[in-house]
Specification:
Shape of chain A: globular
Order of helices and strands of chain B: EEEHEEE
Shape of chain B: globular
Number of strands of chain B: 6
Largest sheet of chain A: 7 strands, mixed
CATH topology of the largest domain in chain A: Gyrase A, domain 2
CATH topology of chain B: Folate-binding fold
Largest sheet of chain B: 4 strands, antiparallel
Number of strands of chain A: 12
Helix content of chain A: 10-25%
Chains: A alpha+beta, B mainly beta, C alpha+beta
CATH class of the largest domain in chain A: Alpha Beta
Strand order of the largest sheet of chain B: 3-4-5-6
Strand content of chain A: 25-35%
Distance between the termini of chain B: 21 Å
Radius of gyration of chain A: 18 Å
Oligomer: heterotrimer
């Protein structure tokens, strides 16, 4: 029997393939796409059982000062961001390794909340830059134009044949792409390939 | 590409969905009352109409909702879409 | 090389004018010979500038052919462009932009363009009528022999088997208004919609905007029309929401206003710059679609109308004005409309000697005719070319008056090297037709014009038969404004239509064929690409092919790569004449995408090679790779098949030894396998227990918290769907596992039942497959290893974690879930670990197991272990199998309803002859039993041999029992234990005598599980 220890560092699905630097066609203005992996994110899926949407929403609002967003939207307060994923389903994420899961359990389970940890199940890539939108548009059918997909818009859709969540962050050209962890290398390779003509900086 | 108006996500390419079958078939609600013929009909018999057809589409790469769709099989035109429990009429 | 004339450098280039850049000469080669053109040329214009008239041979008769058109409709000038992996057959010389170093070769000729042996077909052509090959050779013994040679002789260029080195990609976009076509009407439409603030995309097939204006001498507001084009282009470029895509063809309109467009990003370059796509396929989802696709000129049908040097009149003007090329020195012009006069005037102005202007219409006045006469041109009315001479290029023609009843007057020979012909213009209704659009016949222009269109597409300008410039502009402005308005944009003041200086045109008079000499060697072609003559159409009619669809298939009219752009209407009109009916009654075939050919590579886009389909990797993938794993694809997943020791190269014997070692380690010591690929579904909610009880055939209500249970799911038709274990983690919280193959399907099914069938059940389901890495520790030493690896406070004794127990624990500081379950039949545990820590825990288990000889094992060993135990997988549960078939009928609960139960009493399910699961061993104790083999009583029986069953899965060797074993399904299998049957595999000529045994070869009592 081993001595109990604290958990080791989390290992990204991209640990072996991520080579920081500039890739593809680099023009005078430098890479027009920047790609970074948002590692060590805590991401908790929160569902509301039937008829408990209001109660779960109130519990979250009271604790985090955060309204659970409606379809296709995200909300942020402080360090916690809530994304709409589907009917009565949200993803709450934070970059601060915190006790988000147990807190959500104690806050919402009594009022109908269903809490599932997905922190390790998703790889999140942040893509930004003048050509971020065009890079994504090479394989998703949703309309990423700011008129149709403004700040804090969220879509569950298809990207490079994968089911992904695209989250438009503050600013006109910052997107977080969530994909299943097992497909992380495929997503990474496909984004590098699609962004090659614009130049991609891996941070 | 057919565009299917998901009641949650708005219009999306049909490639995000999986076809999930004929929505006019109702599964026997009370299994004790269902006869072998009822099951046989539910499992095996499907009409193949030309024109408006009620069907289910699963938004597998989106919000995971099953969407009821009234679609014209001769033109691919989606006439209406809603939740599984909705009664759909063309133009709504 | 023998060419018609000696090539003087750019002998046919005008000294001034055109859109070419004389400061940028470009060298190129055609059929190995060096030439020079200019930037701005197409291959066709550059060849014509160099006096090259013959550019290919025809498809069937191998007649020399020249350039007919100046656009996408070209039927003749098809060449093989580039070489190696970049070779593209059937490239239209009229659409290939010239670049330095371009190499192209002619097609359909052997051994050379000038000397083509298959030209004998032309002499034998009286036998080569429509349907000849099939009538003559098919059904003959040896049709297959002839077919190969006939097809080779026909030849449509040759492709390449080399890997295409270039990138292709897709691009998706959305817009309010899509305008297809960058001519005057399209530009006007885009301008209006853009000014209103709409998101506009304008696609233009060629390299520049202007459409027909590039090829004519027109004015707008008293200035050259191209000045207006430049001004409009600049205004569009300043609009943020307007995107103009040149070199882009809208090739198809699909459902819900999805328009497919092909952008030739780098086709005008020798090779694409690094990282750039060669072609980009656009998926454009548009609110409104405006079709400004223009019109295509029709040839006239007369004797020898396929001779090199016979050209469409509009194309002649394109070469004069856009490319500064005179396609000939002495021209005859023939037309059934005023474009003949327009062309003759332009030719004369360019210094070409116009020998004769022929108007097939009855005598009459007209502004254009008056101009031509005033210019001193020799005009003949009610007259035409009846026969053109010149094998390798026109040298002259017979002209004659027409009596209007199918006869001709005296013929007169006119020497010439160019015949410019116009049979009128047909609107390009192709895209309109893709959108379910109807086509209406318009007698005024003798062509089909767009009718109603279900998708609401609006055609403007020449695309709806309005050939005047002023009409095109006003049409475009109106359509652009209306489209923007329909998308919710406010429209400002409507601008005045720009002023043009058009001359009024006299009406066209259709003439579908010009009477010709009775000499049968004189051919009058309707479809140049497919070598369909007027005689073929007459023959088809005589033989009863009177519908246009039958005509098309019988004669191949319009079935070439040009889809009959220059031939369809004429062909149908001739059929209508033969039937004595009006053309609209005979109808036109429906156009289907693509409008012009699109390379398969463009449709594939980036999804090829590595990215053909996404590959899924487990959290421990890198560890496996570093430790010699040989990977195998299992669905989307890459899984270790087996591990090679460092330095060992892959070979069959090595593989066999590696797998045996892995199996023996699990049975005698301990092994570790990555099972992350199994589907994991988190199920929570007050009705979770009831839900599971309905979807599983066996009972789940009594499962206590902290316990796992094996479960079987059926489909609605009673067939076994999937299996796996489900554990109760809390009162209302379960974790279901599924097979790797059906993980996505099972989740979709659960969602189906919850959302559609039993919406009253309050249960939430979600996939956690990716959240948890999973590994199975198995073997007699498994508990010792787990105990050594577990952190303080995690007890794994038989009491603390009994068979089918589930606990939370900690390994290497990582919170884990421990399941006492086994697929191998040995003492076993499954460890679920948050994925980012998967490798840490895996390594901790390997380290703890080292003293016990722990061995990582792969799918091959796992397969053998489970076959030894008779555990079934999708090799057995193949979508045809019932619970009874695999000996699990008793698991189905009789106390409850579950999915599939209603169908279990089907006669086919209770037929005693149904094959049942059995074990099989070779009678000789050593021969492998091939999976997929058929089980028969006696392979010597004369066919048909009754089938008794099949072999589902096979272990070439069970290291545990020392010989090959297999699982299979055998009719009355349970009654045949101890008997022998034969497993035959006729494709490999194998037959193995096998003994029928219980489907479990190791520890049938399961004593090893409970230690």
């Amino acid at each position: 029997m081993s001595e109990s220890t604290t958990p080791p560092p989390r290992r990204s699905a991209l640990a072996n393939v991520w080579h920081p630097g500039d890739h593809g066609r680099i023009g005078f203005t430098g890479p027009q796409v920047t790609l970074r992996e948002r590692r060590d994110i805590t991401a908790i899926q929160l569902d509301a059982q039937r008829g408990t949407t209001d109660g779960v929403g109130k519990a979250v609002a009271a604790a985090f000062g955060l309204g659970l967003p409606g379809p296709g939207r995200a909300t942020t307060t402080g360090d916690v961001r809530a994304l709409w994923l589907g009917p009565d389903r949200w993803l709450l994420q934070t970059a601060t390794p915190a006790d988000l899961e147990p807190r959500l359990r104690s806050l919402t389970e009594g009022v109908g909340g269903v809490v599932v940890d997905q922190s390790h199940g998703r790889t999140i890539l942040r893509i930004e830059g003048a050509k971020a939108r065009d890079t994504l548009a090479k394989s998703t059918g949703i309309d990423l134009h700011p008129r149709a997909f403004a700040e804090n818009a969220v879509a569950q859709t298809s990207l490079f044949q994968l089911a992904v969540t695209i989250d438009r962050r503050r600013g006109t050209s910052i997107f977080d792409v969530h994909a299943m962890r097992g497909f992380a290398v495929h997503l990474y390779e496909a984004l590098l390939d699609a962004g090659g003509e614009y130049g991609v900086r891996l941070v | 590409m057919i565009r299917i108006p998901c009641p949650h996500c708005g219009p999306r390419d049909h490639a995000e969905f999986s076809y999930a079958g004929d929505a006019t078939k109702i599964r026997p609600a009370d299994p004790d009352a269902a006869t072998a013929a009822d099951w046989h009909d539910y499992v095996y018999f499907r009409d193949n109409p030309r024109g408006p057809h009620m069907e289910y589409w699963h938004h597998t790469q989106g919000c995971r909702a099953y969407v009821k769709v009234l679609r014209d099989t001769s033109t691919h035109e989606v006439l209406a879409a809603g939740m599984p429990g909705d009664t759909l009429e063309a133009g709504r | 090389m023998i060419f018609g004339r000696v090539a003087i450098e750019q002998s046919h280039r005008l000294p001034t004018g055109g859109e070419i850049d004389r400061l940028a000469p470009l060298p190129f080669r055609f059929d190995g010979k060096a030439y020079r053109g200019y930037a701005g040329d197409t291959l066709a214009s550059a060849l014509l500038a160099n006096g090259v008239t013959v550019v290919g041979r025809s498809f069937k008769y191998h007649r020399p052919r020249g350039v007919l058109s100046a656009g996408p409709e070209e039927p003749n000038a098809l060449v093989e462009l580039r070489g190696g992996g970049r070779k593209e057959p059937n490239s239209r010389a009229t659409m290939i932009e010239l670049f330095a170093g371009l190499e192209a070769t002619s097609q359909h000729r052997w051994p050379s363009l000038a000397l083509d042996i298959m030209e004998l077909n032309d002499l034998a052509s009286r036998f080569l009528v429509a349907g000849f090959y099939y009538k003559t050779f098919m059904g003959f013994p040896g049709w297959r022999f002839y077919e190969k040679r006939i097809r080779a002789a026909a030849g449509m260029g040759s492709g390449t088997v080399e890997w295409d080195p270039d990138r292709y990609e897709h691009m998706n976009t959305h817009c309010d208004v899509l305008v297809a076509g960058g001519g005057p009407s399209g530009l006007a439409a885009a301008l209006m919609a853009g000014r209103a603030g709409a998101r506009v995309i304008l696609v233009e097939e060629t390299d520049g905007l202007g459409g027909r204006l590039r090829s004519e001498r027109e004015t707008i507001d008293d200035k050259p029309a191209m000045g207006w084009v430049a001004k409009t282009r600049a205004e569009l470029a300043d609009m943020d929401e307007v995107r103009v895509l040149t070199r882009t063809t809208a090739f198809g309109c699909y459902d819900d206003n999805m328009v497919g467009a092909l952008e030739r990003v780098a086709d005008h370059l020798a090779a694409p710059p690094e990282h750039m796509a060669r072609q980009r396929l656009w998926h454009i989802r548009a609110g409104r679609v405006i079709l400004a696709t223009g019109a295509i000129e029709r040839p006239l049908v007369f004797g020898g109308n396929d001779r090199p040097g016979v050209m469409l009149a509009g194309a002649v003007r394109s070469y004069l004005h856009r490319f500064a090329v005179t396609p000939g020195k002495r021209a005859v012009v023939v037309a059934n409309n005023d474009d003949g006069y327009r062309t003759a005037l332009d030719l004369a102005r360019a210094g070409v000697e116009v020998m004769q202007v022929l108007d097939t219409r009855p005598a009459g006045a007209g502004a254009w005719r008056e101009r031509a006469v005033a210019a001193g041109l020799d005009v003949m009315q009610r007259a035409a070319v009846v026969n053109a001479y010149g094998r390798m290029g026109v040298v002259g023609c017979d002209v004659a008056t027409l009596d209007g009843h199918g006869g001709v007057g005296d013929t007169r020979y006119v020497p010439c090297d160019l015949i410019a012909a116009s049979g009128g213009w047909s609107p390009s209704v192709h895209l309109h037709s893709h959108g379910d659009g109807k086509a209406d016949w318009d007698d005024g222009i003798a062509a089909f014009v767009p009718g109603a269109n279900r998708l609401g597409h609006v055609s403007v300008g020449a695309a709806r038969g309005r050939f005047g410039l002023a009409e095109a502009l006003s049409d475009g402005l109106k359509a652009g404004a209306e489209a923007a308005k329909a998308c919710g944009f406010a429209i400002g003041a409507h601008p005045d239509t720009p002023i043009t200086d058009e001359i009024a045109t006299a009406p066209l008079k259709a003439i579908w064929s010009i009477p010709g000499p009775t000499d049968r060697t004189v051919k009058r072609f309707v479809d140049l690409q497919d070598d369909v003559t007027i005689d073929d159409i007459a023959l088809a009619h005589r033989e009863g092919f009177v519908s246009v669809e039958h005509l098309k298939r019988y004669t191949t009219l319009g079935m070439g790569t040009d889809q009959g752009k220059t031939s369809n209407i004429t062909g149908h009109a001739l059929l209508a004449e033969a039937r004595g009916q009006p053309i609209p009654t005979v109808g036109t075939t429906r156009f289907r995408p693509p409008y012009t050919p699109v390379a398969m590579a463009a449709f594939a886009g980036a999804e090829r090679g590595l990215h053909f389909s996404p590959v899924r990797r487990s959290a421990m993938h890198d560890w496996h790779a570093e430790h010699g794993a040989v990977f195998v694809e299992a669905g989307a997943w890459l899984r270790p098949q087996y591990y090679l020791r460092p330095g060992v190269t892959k070979a069959k014997a090595v593989m066999d030894r590696a797998i045996e070692t892995e199996v023996r380690a699990v049975r005698s010591k301990v092994g570790l396998v990555d099972v992350s690929t199994l589907g994991k579904i988190d199920i929570q909610g007050p009705d979770a227990a009831e839900f599971l009880n309905r979807v599983y055939a066996n009972g789940f209500k009594a499962l206590p918290v902290g316990k796992a249970r094996y479960g079987l799911m059926l489909r609605e038709d009673g067939i076994v769907d999937d299996d796996g274990t489900t554990s109760r983690l809390g009162d209302t919280h379960y974790l279901m596992t599924t097979t790797t193959a059906h993980a996505a399907k099972v989740l979709a099914d659960l969602e189906w039942y919850l959302q559609v069938v039993w919406p009253d059940l309050d249960v939430r389901v979600t996939s956690v497959t990716e959240q948890w890495a999973a590994m199975a520790l198995a073997g007699p030493k498994a508990r010792e290893v787990l105990a050594a690896a577990a952190d303080h406070g995690t007890a794994v004794s038989n009491d603390a974690l009994p068979y089918l127990g589930v606990i939370n624990g900690s390994i290497a500081g990582v919170p884990v879930r421990l399941f006492r379950i086994s697929f191998s039949g040995e003492l076993g545990y499954e460890v679920n670990v948050p994925a980012d820590w998967g490798t840490s825990v895996w390594e901790a288990l390997i380290a703890a197991g080292e003293p016990h000889g722990i061995t990582p094992y792969g799918m091959e060993a796992m397969g053998i272990l489970r076959i030894e135990k008779g555990h079934v997988t999708h090799a057995e549960l193949d979508g045809r199998i019932t619970l009874d078939d695999v000996g699990m009928g008793r698991m189905a609960s009789s106390k409850k309803w579950f999915v599939g139960r209603g169908m279990l009493d089907k006669p086919a399910f209770i037929d005693p002859e149904r094959p049942k699961l059995v074990g099989l061993v070779p009678v000789d104790g050593k021969t492998r039993i091939p999976a997929g083999a058929i089980l028969v009583a006696d392979p010597a029986t004369p066919p048909p041999v009754p089938k008794l069953g099949h072999v589902a899965s096979s272990a070439y060797l069970s290291p545990t029992v020392g010989h090959p074993i297999a699982l299979g399904f055998l009719a009355r299998g349970r009654d045949r234990l101890g008997e022998t049957v034969w497993a035959v595999f006729p494709l490999r000529n194998l037959s193995v005598q096998v003994k029928v045994v219980e489907p479990c070869f190791v520890d049938p009592e399961g004593s090893r599980l409970h230690v």
